[in-house]
Predict the 3D structure of the following.
Amino acid sequence: MTEIDFGDPNLASRLDAMSQAELDALPFGVLKLDGDGRIVGYNRIEGEIAEVDFAQQINHNFFTEIAPCMDNPFFRGRFEEGIKAGGLALDFEFETDMDPRAEHIRVRMLTSNTPGEYWVAIKRL
Amino acid sequence: MDQAAVDKTFGKLRADALRELADYWLARRGDAAMPRRADIDPMALGSHHLPRLILADVLREPLRFHFQLVGEQLEHQLGGRFTGKTIDISAGAFFKPYQAVATQTRPIREFIRYDFNDGDPAGAFERLLLPLSEDGEMVTMVFGEAIYTRLITREGL
């Protein structure tokens, strides 16, 4: 399993430097979104935990189709504001009774070095 | 009602005020699955709860929620008057937790801790929504409380 701290202040650049095999070996979930929230990348563990075949979800919208519990001003709103502001560095802890996949999670939304792309790292707590 | 789900939800509560609200709801329901509206006296809860309380009628076909009461502190934090308003599915994420209470017949809790790394201090939000029922089976009202630490949203409760 790839050694990396979820709270690493340089998490985005470390993810940018990883191969797909290294991303797949991470102990937490990772998705990559475009500026509209569409899924452009993912790692193995996120698919397994979320029980979603992300290969079938490329270009689908993360907020409306995959994580409706995040389709609200707290998450999507701040994601969009962060992009507009030129940098995304959001850190959330979230607990809900409504989605067993998000019963207790920590989410980091970060700007990738690839223009127009953004990391969403999801750790189940 | 699934008592295990109720216990699990109440067991996660972080805010003392919401634990008090949960205890009050449990005490007032007695042997019933849920309290009736007449069993609930917001004034009896304590004055510190009143500014953050939510009380909504459940309207059906189609499912909607009419806010009889949204506490003054919540309305101030949210920047608008919600008392007297009715929401339906078009309210999106705002509607979903109320929908879950009414359709799943169970308490619903959400907690969010947030840090935007923009120089502002981190904040948190916790909300507990509880079902009330006149016949002990169908949810007829939603009763709850929401606590914000550093409000950051301008939409929804």
The CA atoms of residues 103 and 109 of chain A lie 18 Å apart.
